[in-house]
Amino acid sequence: MITTFVLLILTIQAKHKLKSHPFSNNQIKLNRHTTIEQAPLDNYANIIYYINASFGTPEQVFSIVVDTGSVTTWISNQTCEGCIFPRFDPNKSTTLQQADEDHSINYNIGSLSGKFVQDYVSLTNGNLNVSMKFMLANVFTMPGIKFQGLLGLSSYNDRQNIFEYGYQQKLLETSMFGLNLNRNPQQSILLYNNFSQDYLDQVVWMPNVLNHQWSMKVYGFFINEIDLTDKVTLKNGTIALMDSGSSCLWLDEEIINYMLHRYILANCISSYSCPCNSPFYPNLNIYLAGVKIEITPEHYMIPSVGQYCKPCFSKAGQTTHDYTILGDPAMQAIISIYDKENQQFGVYQGNKLHKLLTFQIIQISMAIIQFVALCLFSYKFYLYKRI
Ligand SMILES: *[C@@H]1O[C@H](CO)[C@@H](O)[C@H](O)[C@H]1NC(C)=O
Ligand SMILES: *[C@@H]1O[C@H](CO)[C@@H](O)[C@H](O)[C@H]1NC(C)=O
Ligand SMILES: *[C@@H]1O[C@H](CO)[C@@H](O)[C@H](O)[C@H]1NC(C)=O
Ligand SMILES: *[C@@H]1O[C@H](CO)[C@@H](O)[C@H](O)[C@H]1NC(C)=O
Ligand SMILES: *[C@@H]1O[C@H](CO)[C@@H](O)[C@H](O)[C@H]1NC(C)=O
Ligand SMILES: *[C@@H]1O[C@H](CO)[C@@H](O)[C@H](O)[C@H]1NC(C)=O
């Protein structure tokens, strides 16, 4: 009930905020004639999204993972131990500056270490070409992982991402960026620099709760219409990290079990061999402050062996620091906008007002029913006492 109540207040607040226009805080000043930039992304099996980026002069091109869940941009050094090819040859770049700062990164799936350098990094055939710090990896220990590099886009304020460098170097109107991740064959896009006021007026913003990760407070976990919010026992389970670098959803065990045992597994031969479509698969609806993310079976069922699919769920826990992680299946359900300067996260044309309104009406009706029941009970009790 507490969650219901909080949710009610929050949705109302969110609606109010929408009306009162979050951009009036004058930090986002935009030119109406901003040039329009969209960088196409490559999509591997709807679970990894890559962008072509070139490094150095003359340019050396890499297909690197777009990751809102980590901060450091890196590619492989020429003599890197364990890295795949292509690798960057620093001796061939005339604009490279060695920063000589050692650095290592730990991901859920392994780690890598190397050194920072400064050089030109460019996207979309040089349309954006910024001088920035990135890491050259010298040791790569992520078994089975074949990444040429990674574009770090988390909210961590101690290091800057490509769009912040671009903004500082006056190549961009804003350091904001957005992700429109889709399922094949629909094109996926990284958006930057081309946010018109019109566009921004349709974004619902939410505050970022942890400064090192894009992280949202979750007010409701619903399987179809069933409220499982109270079942979440993970300590940080009602904080969700928005992570394009995670292929799956990392959820509280209770939620996964509920979905698997009530709806999904009965259709499957094994947990890896499920039909890709079934009318019995539920939607997972996640309510953030003012936005509902509706994750459908098309988002979370991913190809497995043969003609089969499997649900792309992992148990959140120690490896995720007990956070819920909303990876690609959730990202595909929204167009997400990242405003690091103001530490806020937005959803473009969020599944918001009308849907939330229905949701609120349901909640209100439930509250009314409970109230009426209570009245009836009290009345009966009163009658009983009088006898
Ligand atoms: C960016 O530009 C493209 C094409 O020029 C346009 O179709 C798209 O709507 C623009 N996106 C935004 C966020 O304004
Ligand atoms: C990236 O570059 C490769 C190799 O040139 C090309 O095949 C691919 O289509 C490019 N991807 C995008 C999204 O432009
Ligand atoms: C670059 O040149 C230096 C000095 O000539 C050499 O020690 C180093 O191994 C070269 N690096 C690569 C990656 O070839
Ligand atoms: C890249 O590799 C070369 C050759 O091993 C090495 O000399 C250089 O220091 C490395 N660069 C960085 C930034 O680690
Ligand atoms: C980026 O700018 C630098 C400096 O002007 C230049 O040397 C480099 O070739 C440019 N890179 C691309 C891909 O345009
Ligand atoms: C939960 O979040 C806090 C704050 O970010 C973090 O320090 C902690 O490691 C996380 N995990 C647990 C189990 O508390």
Quick recap:
This protein is α+β, with helices and mostly antiparallel strands and 387 residues long. The protein has helices at 2-20, 162-168, 197-200, 253-264, 297-300, 328-331, 353-386; strands spanning 37-44, 48-55, 60-67, 74-81, 97-107, 110-123, 128-141, 149-152, 177-180, 188-192, 203-207, 215-223, 226-227, 236-242, 249-251, 284-288, 291-295, 301-303, 309-311, 313-315, 323-326, 335-339, 344-348. Residues 49-348 form the Peptidase A1 domain.
User: Roughly how many Å apart are the termini?
Assistant: 34 Å
Q: Stretches where pLDDT falls below 50 for ≥5 residues? A: 1-34
**CATH fold-level assignment of the largest domain:** Cathepsin D, subunit A, domain 1
Distinct ligands, ions and cofactors found in the model: 2-acetamido-2-deoxy-beta-D-glucopyranose
- Overall shape: it is globular
The tally of domains stands at 2
Full CATH superfamily name of the largest domain:
Acid Proteases
Tally of separate helices = 7
CATH architecture of the largest domain: Beta Barrel
The helix-and-strand class reads alpha+beta
Helix content: 10-25%
Number of strands: 23
Question: H/E order of the elements?
Answer: HEEEEEEEEHEEHEEEEEHEEHEEEEHEEH
Mean pLDDT over all positions = 86
Strand percent estimate: 35-45%
The CATH class designation of the largest domain is Mainly Beta
Round the Cα radius of gyration to an integer and report it: 23 Å
Active site: 67, 243
Pfam families: Asp
Disulfide bonds: 276-309
Protein name: Peptidase A1 domain-containing protein
